[in-house]
Amino acid sequence: SKRYSITLLPGDGIGPEVISVAKNVLTLAASLEGIEFTFQEMPMGGAALDLTGVPLPDETLFAAKQSDAVLLGAIGGYKWDANEKHLKPETGLLKIREGLKVFANLRPATVLPQLVDASTLKKEVAEGVDVMVVRELTGGIYFGKPRGFGKDENGAEIGFNTEVYAKYEIDRIARVAFETARKRRGKICSVDKANVLEASMFWRKCIVEISSEYPDVEISHMYVDNAAMQLVRNPKQFDTIVTNNIFGDILSDEASMITGSIGMLPSASLGESGPGLFEPIHGSAPDIAGQDKANPLATVLSAAMLLKYGLGEESAAKRIEAAVLDTLNKGFRTGDIYSSGTKLVGCKEMGEEVLKSVESQVPAA
Ligand code: NAD
Ligand code: IPM
Ligand code: MN
């Protein structure tokens, strides 16, 4: 049988709740394909701050680098919100993305037929939406220098950040996006703010250059304000969206709501080589943490992406996706995707139902 090592980073808030569900589902689905895992759970985010004084201990990054893939819950919480920059849980997350060099963040927003009624958009608008947001993850304003606090020429206090992109950073995310679009419906929309920002003008120029390597993919460009509007006006016009770090952060939360809930959206963060990082796009949801209310499906589907994109184990990934659909077909819903006539369950029960659906699958021959 095949063996892989997985680093688990439960993190804060609902993180441990959703990771516990995803771990069980991952283990069972993979075992049906003859795959075994060794899990190593490491502290990260606020949990690591409380334990070690830093949001990403060296041991955690080391373990992550040594493993075959990393599955993260979520980090952050009120308790650490006032911390200095280097002592914020969020800084730990940016550091692990940087440390693993996972520059390409795939965030698929798919409206499942079972959840059309959970979308806040009209049925005819939401039905059939299938968008892949390809977000640049290790550059842009999140990492650009100069940054910090200071004073302007008049002595007024300021805070500042810089949006910077090097050509190689845009080229490599563009290639990931074009390859992704090729396997989908062959359409890319590059989202920028090239009417105002130099970094976006440069972004667009590089995207146009790379597009000549992919004549089979249809490329279009859109300003981010228009894209935010178009996503709720007519989301079906989009296939693959490629965009920078901050626009991708914002647009993927927006896209998640078309599918019914942010609690449904998984993600895969990949580099040129080395382990990928897999995490739901949502945060630690401090407002519902510890109440067994979280939707674990975004993390369960992130585990499926781990199998598919991280380990190349497509059949095991399909088992998880099928089990999620089966569970939704049976009517089970957490609060965030509840609609009348369905069965309201908590995080744990949703996890148990997904496990039952995996159990009822036939083992691989
Ligand atoms: P959030 O995504 O945590 O929550 C936004 C809203 O969505 C909340 O009402 C929450 O209850 C709901 N929600 C989120 N996930 C859900 C789920 N699985 N099931 C049901 N409902 C869900 O965003 P926020 O409130 O802006 O941020 C909270 C904390 O999380 C902050 O500290 C932030 O920095 C952090 N954060 C972390 C990550 C991450 O770890 N990748 C991502 C985003 C935000
Ligand atoms: C996300 C989060 C993070 C981001 C924060 C918590 C650093 O919002 O994963 O989408 O902005 O990338
Ligand atoms: Mn975000």
Please provide a written account of the structure:
- It comes from Ficus carica (Common fig).
- Its EC number is 1.1.1.85.
- Belongs to the isocitrate and isopropylmalate dehydrogenases family.
- Pathway: Amino-acid biosynthesis; L-leucine biosynthesis; L-leucine from 3-methyl-2-oxobutanoate: step 3/4.
- The chain is an alpha/beta fold and 365 residues long.
- It has a ten-stranded mixed sheet with strand order 2-1-3-12-11-4-5-10-8-9, sandwiched between helices.
- The two termini are 13 Å apart.
- The site of manganese (II) ion (MN) has 3 residues, from helix 9.
Essential attributes:
single chain; two-stranded antiparallel ribbon; binds 3-isopropylmalic acid; 365 residues; 10-stranded mixed beta sheet; 40% helix; alpha/beta; globular; binds manganese (II) ion; binds nicotinamide-adenine-dinucleotide
Mean pLDDT: 97
Instruction: Return Rg in Å.
Output: 20 Å
Helix amount: 40-55%
Query: What is the tally of helical segments?
Result: 12
What is the H/E string?
A: EHEHHEHEHEEEHEHEHEHEEHHEEH
Number of strands: 14
Indicate the overall shape. globular
By oligomeric state, this entry counts as single chain
- Pairing-aware structural class of the strands and helices? alpha/beta
| Strands ordered across the widest β-sheet | 2-1-3-12-11-4-5-10-8-9
Sheet having the most strands: 10 strands, mixed
N→C terminal distance: 13 Å
Low-confidence stretches: none
* Bound ions, cofactors and other small molecules, one mention each: nicotinamide-adenine-dinucleotide, 3-isopropylmalic acid, manganese (II) ion
- The percent range for strand residues is 15-25%
